[in-house]
């Protein structure tokens, strides 16, 4: 045995990858595969801040007439604050405010929970549908994300969380809920179904159980208008007005209808930008396909040029610093501009 | 389009089935806490799923995965990776399977301490060669350096490790009861 072989033997003997760990995975390996393959294409994970993980596929369509107001005035209501005084983040909307019907429909069915403690503000609204949506609240470095679902999905979600560990009973707004703690130090709180819906609350990492209990004690259920008043005012602006800002310098595909953006109108600025640009991109790909099929070379060229030109769209360039959507968009746009219809674009861009 | 999608998905499934154990072993060898390997594996395969069209064919997929995992680990060390909720069950399973650290054989711990004392690239070359069983050109592909660099680093790493722990292989049994990654001789 040479000297090198002896060293290798020593190192091999010190291998920390023990067979009892690798060989004992059972169904875990398969379930992880299924979880991974169910992930949407638009999320990216490596070397990106958390915000970038929020780009998701859009579900469902809410259709409603566009009766919107341009600004939502709100009056601040002083509530009993639980921590060192200060102004509650919960405000009541002015009685004259008319909220978009799309937003009211979601709010009326929603559990409508808010954190009644100074400093907690809504930081992200990535999806906002009646059956599903998500609002993240942030205070300093801490974040609590509330996601709502129909009660029919409660049993499955509860069973899934039981894999994490034992459930511990708590009450949220005097309603029963269960806490699950992850090894990574974050928590999941599942509220029991109420009026046909339930909410899962997920903390960011690094919370103690005491931190969680303090925040849970400050969560309150509010009426629909108060809940909407807590959301960023930009979300309640007329969809046409918001879209006009997003679409500056963006060539529109034939037949593009701004009014059809109603169903994605209630989102924060980033996710509204995702929704609008995805509709534009899908429209251009549809036009590119139509033109190719009919042999209309000039129209093929126009569509390809429009997609290739997306690198210069202000909206995408502005979004590039905040998330990964522009990269996803450009990846597909460049393939089409180069003459190839990319596999997966329907899912990646949520084309319908 | 659909046939292309199926092709990519089938290839991803095959790579996952063939290389999962190797990747988990790779991660377990490079994290401070065994359960953290679940994050690395979940994140690496998630990247592979999203970039499945970029997955190399044949045996190169494993090297490609090691390269992704290396970047995931680097990111994790910088604190930039969130824990993957995806890997939660795997994490729980690893915790349940890992033996008490106190039961480790002292000689193994001494070798790991000595490995930790090597320069980063030297250590990685030695680990890829012995634990992953890679040949120099394969380790070079993972690390993004030339094969000649790997050979030089490997020789230096062995010499330094020998100086740190000696080259007495110890009593039998310390060797045979560990994972047996095949080690190929350097292709000089």
Describe the protein in words.
The complex is a heterodimer of chains A (about 350) and B (about 190). Chain A has about 350 residues and is α+β, with helices and mostly antiparallel strands. Chain A has helices at about 5-15, 20, 30-35, 100-110, 155-160, 210-215, 225-230, 240-245, 270-295, 295-310, 315-320, 325-335, 345-350; strands at about 75, 90-95, 115, 120-130, 135-140, 140-150, 170, 175-180, 185-190, 195-205, 220. In chain A, the strands form three sheets. Chain A has a seven-stranded antiparallel beta sheet, with helices on both faces. The longest helix of chain A has 26 residues, at about 270-295. Chain A starts with a helix and ends with a helix. In chain B, about 40% of the residues are buried. In chain B, helix 2 (about 35-50) packs antiparallel against helix 4 (about 90-95), helix 6 (about 120-130) packs across helix 7 and helix 6 (about 120-130) crosses helix 8. Chain B is flat and about 50 Å long. Chain B is mainly alpha-helical and about 190 residues long. Chains A and B meet through helix 1, helix 2 and helix 3 of A and helix 1, helix 2, helix 3, helix 4 and helix 5 of B.
């Amino acid at each position: 045995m040479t000297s090198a072989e002896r060293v290798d033997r020593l190192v091999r003997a010190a291998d920390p990858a023990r067979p009892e760990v690798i060989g004992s995975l059972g169904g875990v390996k398969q379930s992880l595969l299924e979880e991974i393959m169910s992930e949407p294409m638009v999320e990216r994970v490596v070397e990106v801040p958390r915000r970038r993980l929020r780009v998701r596929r859009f579900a469902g369509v809410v259709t409603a007439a566009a009766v919107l107001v341009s600004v939502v005035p709100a009056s601040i209501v002083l509530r009993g604050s639980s921590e060192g005084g200060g102004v509650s983040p919960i405000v009541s909307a002015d009685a004259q405010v008319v909220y978009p019907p799309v937003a009211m429909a979601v709010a009326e069915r929603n559990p409508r929970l808010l954190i009644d403690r100074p400093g907690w503000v809504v930081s992200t609204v990535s999806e906002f549908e009646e059956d599903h949506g998500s609002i993240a609240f942030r205070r300093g470095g801490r974040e609590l994300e509330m996601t709502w679902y129909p009660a029919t999905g409660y049993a499955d979600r509860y069973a899934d969380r039981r894999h994490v560990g034992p459930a511990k009973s708590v009450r949220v707004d005097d309603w029963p809920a269960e806490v699950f703690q992850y090894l990574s130090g974050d928590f999941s709180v599942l509220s029991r179904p109420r009026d046909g819906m339930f909410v899962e609350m997920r903390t960011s990492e690094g919370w103690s159980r005491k931190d969680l209990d303090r925040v849970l004690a400050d969560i309150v259920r509010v009426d629909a208008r108060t809940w909407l008043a807590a959301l960023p005012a930009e979300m309640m602006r007329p969809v046409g007005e918001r879209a006009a800002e997003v679409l500056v310098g963006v060539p529109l595909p034939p037949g593009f209808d701004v009014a059809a953006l109603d169903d994605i109108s209630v989102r924060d600025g980033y996710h509204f930008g995702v929704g609008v640009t995805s509709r534009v991109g899908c429209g251009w790909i549809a036009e590119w396909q139509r033109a190719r099929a009919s042999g209309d070379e000039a129209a093929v060229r126009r569509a390809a040029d429009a997609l290739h030109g997306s690198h210069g769209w202000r909206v995408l360039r502005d979004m590039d610093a905040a998330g990964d959507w522009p990269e996803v968009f450009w990846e597909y746009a460049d393939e089409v501009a180069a003459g190839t219809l990319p596999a997966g674009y329907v899912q990646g861009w949520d084309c319908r | 389009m659909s046939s292309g999608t199926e092709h990519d998905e089938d290839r991803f499934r095959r790579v996952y089935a063939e290389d999962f154990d190797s990747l988990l072993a790779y991660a377990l060898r490079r994290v401070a806490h065994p359960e953290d390997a679940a994050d690395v594996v979940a994140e690496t395969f998630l990247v592979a799923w999203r970039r499945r069209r970029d997955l190399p064919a044949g045996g190169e997929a494993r090297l490609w995965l090691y390269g992704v995992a290396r970047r995931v680990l680097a990111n994790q060390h910088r604190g930039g990776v969130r824990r993957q909720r995806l890997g939660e069950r795997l994490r729980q399973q690893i915790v349940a399977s890992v033996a008490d650290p106190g039961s480790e054989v002292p000689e193994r711990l001494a070798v790991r301490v000595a490995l930790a004392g090597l320069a980063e690239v030297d250590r990685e070359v030695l680990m890829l060669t012995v634990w992953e069983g890679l040949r120099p050109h394969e380790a070079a592909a993972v690390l993004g350096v030339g094969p000649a660099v790997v050979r030089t680093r490997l020789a230096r790493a062995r010499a330094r490790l020998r100086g740190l722990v000696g080259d007495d292989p110890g009593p039998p049994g310390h060797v045979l009861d560990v994972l047996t990654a095949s080690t190929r001789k350097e292709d000089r």
